[in-house]
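Please predict the structure of the following assembly.
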Amino acid sequence: MPDLNNLPENDSENDQYPIEPRYHPVNRFARKIFDSLASSKLAMFLLVFILACCVVGVTVYRGQKAGEMIFGTLWFNGMLILLVINVACCFFGRIWGRKVTIISFGMILFHLSFVAIFAGIVYNSLFHFDGVIRLTEGETLPSGDVNSYDRADHGRFFSYAKLRGETTLIRMHIGYKVEGEDKRAAYEVEVGERGSKKKGIIYITHNLDYGDIKYLPEKEGYSLLTVLSDAQGREIYGAFVPLQSLKQGKENSYLYATGTKEGPESFPFPQEPEKPRYAVLLEYTPSPLKERSGEVHYQVWPLVPGEGMPAEKKIADAKAAVTEKIPAGAHQLSVKEVGYWVAMNVRYDPGKPVVLVSLWAGLGGMIITTFGRMLRRRGSARSNPGSTSLPEKEILG
Amino acid sequence: MKPELMLLWTAVGLYGLSAFSYIFGLISKSEKLFTVGLYSALAGFAPHVGTIALRWSATGITPFISISESLSLGVFMAVLVLLATLFAIKRLRPIGVLVMPVAFVLLGWSGTLMKEVAATIAPALQSGWIWVHIVGASTGFASVLIAAGLGLIYLLKENRTGGIYDRLPDLDTIDVLSYRYVAAGFIMYGLMIVSGCFWSNQVKGNYWNWDPVEVWSLISWLVYGIYLHLRITFGWRGRRLAWYALFALAAMIVSYWGIPFSMETFHSGFRIEH
């Protein structure tokens, strides 16, 4: 054990550079491994290497490609883990046996937080859930069913039993205001199990927490209640049809149509399990005067019997106001109601609190170290008033 | 021309005068030109504050959102920290040789990009974290810019004597001061990143998404983290760190304004689909 009454300060300016570790395991093999991991040259190499990877990840590759090639790869994440182990060995090996001062306490806090952040990230990666659930107004889906999600990523040890109960979209609010601030879109939702359901409004900067599960707004779009009627006007089938918001040109104008994000496309109507009769392409122009109203452009093709493919010739190409019917072969088509669909991000991140608290702890560590250095300078100035080596004395006045 | 633009270009003009006074002051070793540089920077600071105030009062929306406003805020903080430093430590006047040309160019760039004041603010930006974030970012930038200015005068003084060089603090003092400003910048960048993580967590439910702005801010922070480790662990001092501070500043400016704002990212506001 080191002599606690005669310990050097960790931040002594008289150290030999580069500063070498003070702790070495007794076992020869363990010592060899520890000394390799506590190498300051390895730390510098890893820092520069990760820095270079980051630069490549935002210049050569960008966005999703950068994630696939660098940030999401095993080797890059392995490098990050190695850096954390290296930082821990480097720092704690060097501070071992030194007197704890304000400066060293701040540095310990900073480096500990660094390790804790990565521990939180690793823990989170094993147990997390990150899914996108898409709902139309009035729709309810079971939260714990994997089929309820458009996209779902989860850690190796995550269980869907964590996602209890159901998720319901009650209504989508456009132009939602909070204390005069326009939140643009807000989702009124209800989540949870019967008897303990939680209702709330979510918008960007305001989420809904149900236990450890977080519900966040992601994106939204129009959904048209499209109805097929017979020649006498009797409704025989109806379904909500979600529309894509397709950006037009550089300005903020959109085309709202059925299809995919690549462009407008027709879809079979009625939808399965009913027998499809037509291929229908809908384009919606919202009214600037009244919400949930406007004009719909219908394009209808009959389906070739036996093939299920649309025929070449359209049987209807007409525009009509919402609720108005248009003739389509032996039937009539109409949009009875304009609603919204929303995509909500559902998250479970058990390691996140550790990461967030550690971020502040790390920042606190940096501030405490700086504060300690300022105190030390003042102490030096008082105990050595004739010194000319103090920058303040040198430059002031 | 609108009053805020008039004030902005007046500030650009005065910062330009200050920049050239500093540069010619250095070439001619004239203390008087440094005085002109200092007071024209001070004179330019007033209309600069005026243009920010006018934009702010026009809609009540914080004028620090677009790239031009971000540039303007960064320059505002850099000039504020420079003036505070120079009035506190008179012998450091030559650091304006780096700070004021950078301020002049960045504010001029901001002027060319300046658009109408935004009538609304994107919902994602309606968060209290914006204040912590922009204070961290702009103060961090100001600190590392001054540190680079100190690095430059370190390199200039190293091989020169006479006139203004003799009135500068000694090399060790300049070196220590540069280190302190880097340490301050490192903490402020830390504050920027931490507040950015909390802000992102509030908006996206995730504290880190590897988006270009996040990665560039991490790059800046790592660059200065390496500086501190080179000094504390490897014992680097003087000329090598002075050069490092200058190169790091270039990386910082690219990371702050160069690449991130050229693509659609979090900071460009959220896409609203409906």
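The first helix of chain B runs from residue 3 to 28. Confidence is low (pLDDT under 50) at residues 264-274 of chain B.
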